[in-house]
Structures are given as structure tokens and as C-alpha cells.
Amino acid sequence: RAGRRAARRLPTAAGPVRWGGRMSIREDEEEESNFIAAPPTPAAEGYAAAASSSNAGAGVASEEQETTQQAEEADNEAGGGDAEEVGELTNLDMAAEQINDQVFEELNLDPGTAAEVQTIWNTFLRSAESREAAGEAIYAALFDSAPSLQGLFKTPRAVMAMRFMNGLNTIISALDDPRSLKVVVETLGFQHMDLEVTIPRVIIFRDAIVELLAVEMGARFTPRAQKGLSAMLNYVGGAYIFVRLKYTDRLRILASSWAIASNKKQETQHEEAAEGASGEVNEDGSGAVDKPNQDSEAEKVASAQQSQEDAAKEAKNKKMRTQVPTTYNEMFMFNAAVMGFQRSFWMNEVLQSFDTIVTNVSNSYRLQEECDVLSLRIAKYKGKINLVEYKAVMLASLRSLCRDWGSEHEVAWSWLWENVERMIKALIGKPVLQERALERLLSALDDAQQDRVRREVYSSFFALAPSGQDYFKQSTTRLHFIADRVVAMTLEIYKDPKKMVEDISALGLRHVGYDIPTEFFGPFVTACVQVVRTLTEDDLAEEAFRWSLSLISRILVRVINEGSTIVMKAINSNSGKQLKKAVGCAPRGKRALWMLNVQVGTQSISPLLWAIETGSLEAAKAIIIDLLTIRADRDRYYYGMDFMFQRHEDIIKRLCNDAPALLPTLLDGLIWRSRITENGSRRVNYYIKHLLVDSEGKFAKAMDWVIANGDPKIICHPILMLVTDLTWSRLAFRIFLYGKTWFLLTLCIFITAQAVVKHLQSDEASAQIERTTMFACRCFIYIFSMGQWIYFHVKHTYKDIRSSKIVRVWWAFVPEYLTQNWQDCASLLLTAFLIMMFAIEPILSCLQHSDGDFPGAGAYTQNCPEADGTRFAYSVFSMCAMILYYALLVDMCVFSTRIAAFVLVIFRVMSEVGLFVFALSFILIGFACAVSTLEQSNKDFAGIPKSALNLLKVTLGMFSGGHYDDLSEEPALLGSVFVYVAVTVVFLINMLTAQLNSAYQSTYQDMLGFARLNRGKIVIEAMPSISRSRWEAFVRALQLDTKVEFGEGDVGLPGGVQVFEPASMNPTTIDMIKRVGGSTSPAAQWPEDQGEDDEEDRFERLEKRIDKAMRRLAKRGGGGKGGRAANGGGGGGGSSGNQQSGGGSSKGSSIASGSDAGEHSQ
Fold first, then answer.
1. Is residue 838 over pLDDT 80?
2. 21-76 per-position pLDDT tens digit
3. First and final CA of the chain: distance in angstroms?
4. Distances (CA, A) of 57 to 48, 70, 71, 103, 660
5. Worst-scoring range by mean pLDDT, 15-19, 272-276, 338-342, 617-621?
6. How far apart, in whole angstroms, are the C-alpha atoms of residue 65 and residue 83?
7. Nearest to 120 by CA among 230, 226, 234
8. Which of 252, 782, 894, 1035 is deepest in the core (most CB within 10 A)?
């Protein structure tokens, strides 16, 4: 047993030492868990070895102490169980009392103590309402015990509480694995180097946590668990102090020199300058606006000369920059070429990852992960790979870029590369062999084995982590698909590591939205490896599967941890109240960014979009309201409109498709109304920029998406009405009028040719002029009207066929454009009738027979005998074409929304008329067939056609009284007609009246909206015809880039237009701008708005205060240590209250997931 313990503590490049061939299942499970919690990385040992090579003797001392400790453990174990137990308790007492900041070794607690600490911690988590509530309790206990520590934590309370929780949970979970625990604590120690951690502060923190668990757990918190927890917290605190004293200077040198070498320092300065320039105000307090140019001619000439000189200098500087490398990447490529390494293409892979390596040097997990991925990418290159070559080029490049380069820089960068080189060398040559072995294994699996893998993976996983069943709610087939993808990804990451890392990062961000605990990834990997182990005896294939799956899981865990923000947690709970508390922790300059972007590496996810896609509409509504709330301090206004539309230019489309109920909320947020009236009017700012102009300066598609949605209520929203009216009156009206003017001209000519000239009565001389006029008009119609329509339909038909936009309507396949509006179908029918008219044109038939002996003979006549067979058909086609011309003229009603609303109401109730005609036709045919079977002699009802015609006359009141007298001679026929009259005239016609009345009442409420939808559709269709210059002139006239006033002398935000509306139209007594005093720093938070708390929130706060008071009374009654704790808590109570009221609230984080001074807060 001592040998196995020592083996687990001794790191090797190839992984854990195997005793007796294959390890047992228990040992395999421990090893597989280590791949998640602490991958087999020599990071910690690498730091110690590098420090030893840099004249730091702590590594040697640590190694000697570890060897001595191993020997002592072996002796104790050999001496018997009692001696071992006494020794462990003695060591535990010492560890619980002493804080060792001189060396950093592994913490070896006996399994019973570690298990007891983990049990009491899990019990504490289960007793809390949530992990966030547990984090809040830890946060409050810490600052109640020592209010002076509040100055160390500038991160918002909710964020800091969540860090406390995550950090403590990670540390306690690794308590039974000393090696993994050391890596965890070391990584957290690097993240806390900017905090002044001291032994007294560690004692305060330790006592606060221990006393909190003593109060919460009561008798379940045994002395052994208390000592184990104290020993763990002492170990963590001592490690923080050790790492800070040991590596602070070295990491500071790396960070500062890398910022210079990669130009990050200059970029940061530019960003800060740009941020400071935004929202500047004048000395009088008004916003900075563009003023008219009042320069004199001399000033203009001087300015032009200065511009030419600046341009010349810039050109010269640019030329010099192209000759001399200024960034690390440029300098590296230059030095590699000079030093003869230009054919070492593998260096490019290292160069691409080097920024991530340097920036994560203090994070052992992230550094190991990046080196593992880098080793996969390097493995794709053939030939010798000498990592020392990269070090030489790296140091040469850094010496050239860093002017203050010295021996300390040399030591620091050599230390960094030696650690990286050690990690990469441990894997060089392995990925190729592992890929081949894994590919052989997976390709050899038959269907039965694959099905076995799918089933047993989840069986093993649920056995290892029973609570994981609560998170797998999909169907079995979906779970089998996931298992197949997991197995396939283990091979794909060998084949294309760069692409797979991107895909895995995107997958991890989706898991952030699913709220999957990262604790389940370890058991899942273990389950997968156990199943694969039963399928092969090839150790190399098993190792390849294990290693690649562990790498995938580590990437997923990292992405989930980095992407799990308090905003995403609020979205997962779909709570608007929690989301308000979460964003209340954000700096005012980054508040919008918290709600619109979570970035992890090159992948990002939008909390707003995720809330919409997952149906968390309460959270999405809270985000939209918060983004579109105008806030202001003395220096600048904050409004999230630009951020939202830049991040999601199609947000209107998303809402129309997935959450139409949120569209009014968004549109309301784009309107500002003043609560102050001036001369009976009120200022109203409509921020229409992103509804009108897209990012490329063209007409935005927002209106197109709203029109396609077809909601008559949303189109009547004031801001959409303003956008529609502006584009209609200033742009689309003229285009539409031009198009309809041509149509009106062709209609007038068609009326003249077909209905006017032919009925004129004149002499022979005038008849020739009339026939010539008719011929000319018809030629005009056939050439210009029919030709235009043929071109239109051929073009659109060809376009739809090319793009495969063919739609099936009943039994026929038609181009898609014909199904979008009825005008296109009507124009197609008109084209068909015009073609048929041209095909049988009587004038063309009589051209060669105009001189004959018949009435109307002469040039261009249509009365020749040769045209007698087609003249009537031509007149029918002409009548149909005339009706279609007038039907297409209905669009002219768009000039008046009132007339357009009336016409649309008519179309809306036509369905009721259609039902009436269907019912009437059915009854009509039925009665016509019935009376035709009677034995009667009435000529009006002799047969079905005559019966149907006369019954229709009866219904329409066209049946004369004399015919009724004839019916009296046929009693049976008369009775049938009476029944028919009762059914149709009395019942059906009155039913039609009732139906029309009901349909009109329901349609009347939305008829204005339908009219505006029709106008908007015409605007959308007309916009492509607007010239670029005219569109730009229209946008310039709106002055959307000019700041709009909120009041006299109060210049506000750009992107809108201001109108005045009657004060009685939309009365408001609340200032829609939330103004605050105090600090104007963008890094400061907005004060919490206490006025928005509802009654439920107040009772909840009251309940928490009562519960807190009762716990204090219980602690005070316990005496001894509890009394001392009560006194400490009483002293800090006021400060805790201040912290609660000022710091936000709800969700917790970790003791150690990073200091608050700028470390990945979101």
C-alpha cells in the first residue's frame, strides 16, 4: 500500500505507474477522474524544477521533504493500525493549527477525514436553497467576522459569492487526491497574487468558514471534520502566500514584457482613450455636439497644409513600419528567416498558440490544455521537431522588442519555455500512434458492439453519478446519438485538432445555457473508458481513447466555467428579478456587454439570444428593458440600443419568429417621452436609426420582417408608423405614383380602344379617323402594356426556377412569386387575356379584306366577314381584361389609409360571401334536380338547367309575378318553390347578413392595421427602385448622427428624430431617464433601484433578516467559542448591512476562483 501511494505521488511523463500489469478497476477510476480534475501534467513539478534551475532551492527542499514523508508513511503503516491512526491524528492537529507558507507540498489527509469533510460540505450545500444562497452565506459570514476585509474585494457581491462557492467546491472535491489538490490550489494561488494574503487574514477566513458550518450543521459537524476543514483552509492560505512570494516578480516580468512585445499595451491605451472620449460633455454640462464650422479662410488653408504634412509623415512612418517588425509575430518570422529556420513550419503552430500560453502561464490547467492541443497540431508535421530552436528565436525576438531587457527577463522567459517544452516533449510522437490505434479500434466495432457502447455508457454513468439522471431528459435515441458523437469526437480531435477545439468550445457554450454541472464530466469520462476497456485488449487504443476524451472534457469544463456568468444563471431560472440583481453587479460601462456577449476564446454566446431561443421570455424581457433604459450621470448617457443592434442586427426578425410578445417591449424602449410639457406639447424622441438604416448604410430589413409577420396591431405601434410614414412620404410615394401613372395611362388608352371609339356614331370621314385611332390604341396596348407584363412575368418565373422556388398549389406547380400577393396573379391573367386578344384580333384578320361590300368597310376595319367567327370571343376577352385592369387599380387606395382600410375590410369579409355562394349553389342544384323529377308541365322548370336558372331568379327577386301565377296550376311544384324560398331567401340571406356583420365587427378593430400593412408592403417593394444618392440624401436630412435634445440645453443621444405631440396624447409623470449623482466612472455600478421592489421582495428580505437574527441568538446561547463568534458578528453587522444594500445580491461564486482585481469577472 505504501508503494502504491508513493507511485501515485511520483509524476512520470507517461502517466501513472502500473503495478502488476493492468491496474485494478478502482485504480483506473481514480486515474480517469484525475484526467478531469487534474490531468497528468508536470506543471507543478515543472515550476519547482524551473525554480531550482534558477537558483531557487525550495524545489530541492520540497523534494527531500516529500521523500522523507513517504518513508515515514511507510514506517507508520508497517508499524500497525493503532500507530498509524495516532500519527495521522497528530499530523491532522498540527495541520489544523499551523499555516505553512515556507514550502508548498501535497496535503495528505487520511481517507476518513477527507470523506468526512466532503460529506459535511455536500450536506451544507443541500441544506441551502441553492449554491448561490450558500455562497451568499459564506460571503456574509466572512465580512461579519472581519469587516476590514471588505476593502480587499472590489468585485460585486453576487460575483464574489459565486467565486467563493465554486472555489471551495473545487478544492473540497479534490481533497482525497493530494496531487490533484496541489494543482488546483497552485492555480488558484496564481490568480490571487495581486491580493495581499497574510497569515492573520487566513486565520480570519478559516474561522469564519468553520464557525458558519458549525452553526449550520450543528452536531453533524464532528471534531474530525472541523480539523480536516481547518487543515485544508490552512493549506490553501499557506499556498497562496507561498506562490505570491515566490512567483510574483517573475510573472509580472512576463506580463509586462509580453504586453510590450505584442503591442497590447498600446492597444489598451487606445481603448481607454476611446472610452474616455465617448460621452464627453462641455463645461456648461451639455452634451458634446457638432458645431458649425466657423474657421476663417486662413485657418482652412493652414489646416489643409497641416493635413498634407501629417499624411506625408504617416506615409513615411508606414514605410518604415513595413521594413522594421514591430510586433512579436513579425519579429519572430523575421528572426526565424535570418537564423535559417524558415522551413520549420511547425513553429507557426507554436506562434499561433504562444499568446494563449503566455497569458495563461499562471493557470496550470489552461497551460496544460493548450500544450496538449499544440502537441496534436505539431504532430501533423513530418520531420524533426527541435523545440530548442523556438526558444532561440523567441529570446532573440523578445530582446529586440523589449528595450529594458535584462537578466531577470532572460530567467523568466527561459523558465516559461522550459515548462512548456517539458509538457510538449512528454507527448511528441504519441499522437500519431494513438490516432492509428484508436482508428483501428473504432473501425473494428460492429453494429452490436456500437449498440452496446450506447447503452452501457449511460448505465455506468448513472451508477457512478445517480444524480446525473436528472439532467438527461431526452429520448433514448437522442442519448444514443450523443454517445456516438462522443466516441467520434475522440478520433476527430486527432485528425483536425484546430477545428475540433472550435467546435468543442461552441458546444461548451451551449452547455452553459443548459446549466449542466461540471462535476458530471469526470464520471462520464470514467464510464466511457470502462465501456471501451471491455471492447479491446489493446492498451495503446485504450490510452488514446482515454487521453483524447479527457482533453475534450477539460476543454468543455473550462468553457463552461468561463462562460457560466450570473446572467446566464438568471436566464436558466427564467427570473426577471434575478436577472436584474445579476446585471446590477455590472460596471455601468459594461452593463450592456454582460447581457449581449459571453466570450470564451474565439467562441461567443449571447445571453439575450439564448433566452429567446430557450423560451426564457421573462429573462429576455428583463434584458430588453434594461438595455433600452436610458441612464445618465453628469458626464454621459448610457443607452444599450446601439450595442443590441450591433450584436444582433436581426433582433427584430428573431422576435417576430420566436417571441412576438416581446416585440412591443423592444419598440417601447426606442421611444422617449418627456414628462414636461411646453405650450401644450410634449417632446418625443423616436430612435429609429436601426429600424431605418442597416450597418452598411442601406435600407434596413426591420420593416420587411415586421410586414412579413402580418400582425395588424404591432404595425400600428407609434415608432413603426413614423418609420412607414417617413419612407412613404419622402421616398416611396413618388416611385409608386410614377408606376401607377403609367398604369393609368395604359388603362385610359385601353378604355378608349375597347369601350369608347367603337360606340361613336359619325359619318364616313370621321369613321376612318375613329378606326385609325382604335388601331393605334390597340397597338400601344399590345406593345407597351402586354409587352411590359410579359417581360415582368418571364423574368420572375425564370428567377424562381433558377433558385428552385417552386410552390405546389393544389395539383399545379407555380413560381413562388405568384403566391405572395394577388396582384401578381391578376396581372398574369391580364397578360394571358391580352395575348389571346392579340391572337384573334379582328383588325389583323381584316387587314387584307378591308375593301369589301360590308358595313364599316375601310382601312383598319374589324367588321369584315372573315372576322365574324372571332369577334364575339374577342369581346369576351376584352371584357375580362377590362375587369382585371380595374382590379389592379385597387392599389391606388393606399394614398388614403381610411379608403385602404375600407377596401381591406371588403376583402376580409369575402370569405363569408364565398361560403354563402357555396351553400346557395348546393341548395340550388339540389332543388333543381328535385323539381325536375316531378311530373309537371311548367316550361320554366323543364329540366335541370332551366330549373336552376329560374330558382336563382327566385332567390334574386327576378322571377316575375306572371310566372308565379303559372305555378298555381302545379301544387307540388309550387310547394317546392315555397320551401326553396324559405331556405334561401329567409334563412341563407339572413345568415349571410349576420355573418357579414360579425366578420366586420372583428375586422374593423384591425382594419387600420391592415391598411398600414398594405402601405408598408408597397414601401418595401418600392425601396429597391430608390437610387443610392436619393437614399443617402434622405438619411442625411434626418440627421440621425446628431444628438437629440432631452430638454432645453440638455443634448442627449444620437440615432433618433424628435417630434412634438399633444400633451394629452400619452400623459406621463415619470422621468424615463434614470439619473444618478456621485461618481461618473464607467467602472462604477449603477445604484440599485429600490423603488421597483414588489411586496414579495420585501417580505423575502424581512424573512432573511429574521432568520439571520435567530441564528445569531443561537450562536450567542452556545457559549464559549460561539459567544466569541457572536461578538465578532455583532461588531460587523452594520457593515454587512451596508454591503448588502450597496453591493447587489443574489448569486454566489468562489473562495478562490480568482481575485476581484480584473480577473475574468465575466
1. yes
2. 323 333 333 333 333 333 333 333 333 333 333 333 333 333 333 433 443 443 44
3. 45
4. 9, 20, 22, 11, 67
5. 15-19
6. 21
7. 226
8. 894
